[in-house]
Design brief:
CATH topology of the largest domain: Rossmann fold
CATH superfamily of the largest domain: Glycogen Phosphorylase B
Helix content: 40-55%
Shape: globular
Oligomer: single chain
Largest sheet: 7 strands, parallel
CATH architecture of the largest domain: 3-Layer(aba) Sandwich
Order of helices and strands: HEHEEHEEHHEHEHEHEHEHEHEHEHHH
Radius of gyration: 22 Å
Number of helices: 15
Strand order of the largest sheet: 3-2-1-4-5-6-7
Length: 409
């Protein structure tokens, strides 16, 4: 071993690590399970574990919670759990207890991988990933009506957005997943362009087109039909699931075997009441399947069984389900929200973002034209191959090194 390599292996006494807040991977942490944030944290943590030198990047986890299986145990740094339950206790823990705990231990920097989770008053350099600005840019989509309860919820909503803005303003760097989101963060939150790092996400390695031996068993366990359209994600207003149900219901009149599978935490989203109403009034309601959150290892089988992934979204920060479907060779039919268009390029069949009804004709084309479906599947696989978590981890480490002044690999 050369002298320089030996010095690196031994490290310096004054070296300080950078910490990634990995609590989003732990069971029951907020509502990240089955959502893009949880997927992002898991894939990034695993990729950083492979890229960073031992001891140079740590992963924050809560004491007493299930520990992470996807990273080396030596990287885990246990933080205190919140005292009490509920939103107020969570916020007090986040912005007071956790901020003080991190500040007292003085890591070189800390990365909060979701804008909803940072400790706004932490006294060390911070990095925040902003996945989208939909709540800041389109808060009216999430209005809860009138009454005392709605006013309390509205006040809480505004307070949380204020804390997010403060954390983002105080951060040394902001990571965003797409050029579209970078532009929106700059315009909506006033973040200087020089402070932004665009680091696209990727589909995890388990998402691949070749069938796995357990695929049929997974789909049977979830009671999935033979022919189905798939939507993955939550039910918040921007996903427009009631409109998607209407599109499916129209298609189902002429296709008696077709079903719609909604995979993800739709039962807990803000749009669940409207979604349930749409399902209850649909003529083909018996062919709408709600799987709930699908385990990570089972999700590729759900994708591979679908005739198409369909998204009626009006706004995304990236659109990870698009890449997951692409990697599985599944055609994607979606509304052309700006970030979806950026990620999909010409590998998906897109309709105008305000033309949800046009999804019906687009889906009918994919379902009836095997050559089109095959071409879209091939284009999607090629597009997905352009995004890799190893690249995302390397670029994230570069941000860590720039902020911390430390060498981490």
């Amino acid at each position: 071993m050369g002298e320089r390599a030996g010095q690196r292996a031994r490290g310096r006494a004054d070296e300080r690590p950078v910490w990634l807040d990995a609590r989003g991977l732990q069971r029951g942490f907020k509502e990240h399970g089955g959502r893009g944030i949880g997927t992002y944290v898991g894939a990034l943590a695993e990729a950083l574990d492979a890229e960073a030198a031992p001891g140079r990047v740590g992963m924050l986890v809560e004491r007493g919670a299930d520990l992470l299986q996807s990273v080396s145990p030596g990287r885990l740094v246990e933080v205190p759990r919140a005292v009490g339950r509920g939103r107020l206790a969570t916020q007090l823990h986040q912005h007071v207890q956790l901020a003080l705990w991190i500040s007292a231990r003085r890591p070189a920097a800390v990365h909060f991988p979701a804008q909803s989770d940072p400790a706004a008053f932490v006294a060390v350099p911070s990095i925040v990933t902003v996945h989208d600005v939909v709540l800041h840019r389109h808060g009216a989509w999430y209005a809860r009506g009138d009454g005392v309860g709605a006013r309390v919820a509205g006040a809480r909503f505004r307070t949380m957005r204020l804390l997010e803005r403060l954390a983002i303003a105080r951060a040394a760097r902001i990571v965003v997943p797409s050029r579209v989101t970078a532009l929106e963060v700059a315009q909506t939150l006033g973040v200087p362009r020089a402070k932004l790092a665009v680091i696209p996400l990727a589909a995890a390695a388990r998402f691949r087109a070749s069938p796995a031996p357990g695929d049929d068993a997974v789909r049977a366990r979830l009671h999935l039909p033979e022919r189905y359209l798939l939507h993955t994600g939550g039910s918040d207003a921007r996903k427009r699931l009631p409109e998607l149900v209407a599109v499916f219901d129209a298609l189902a009149r002429d296709d008696r075997e077709l079903a719609l599978v909604l995979a993800g935490p739709v039962a807990s989203g803000d749009g669940m009441v409207a979604l349930r109403r749409a399902i209850d009034t649909a003529a083909a309601r018996e062919r709408i399947v709600l799987t709930g959150v699908v385990p990570d290892d089972d999700l590729p089988a759900v994708y591979r069984g679908a005739r198409a992934l369909v998204l009626a979204t009006r706004h995304e920060g990236f659109g990870l389900p698009v890449l997951e479907a692409f990697a599985c060779g599944v055609p994607v039919v979606a509304t052309a929200a700006d970030a979806v268009r950026e990620v999909a390029a010409d590998a998906a069949l897109l309709v105008g973002v305000d033309e949800v009804g046009a999804l019906q004709d687009a889906l009918r084309r994919v379902l009836s034209d095997e050559d089109l479906a095959r071409d879209l599947g091939a284009a999607g696989r090629a597009r997905a191959a352009q995004f890799r978590w190893s690249v995302a981890a390397a670029e994230t480490l570069t941000v860590y090194e720039q902020v911390s002044g430390e060498r981490l690999r």
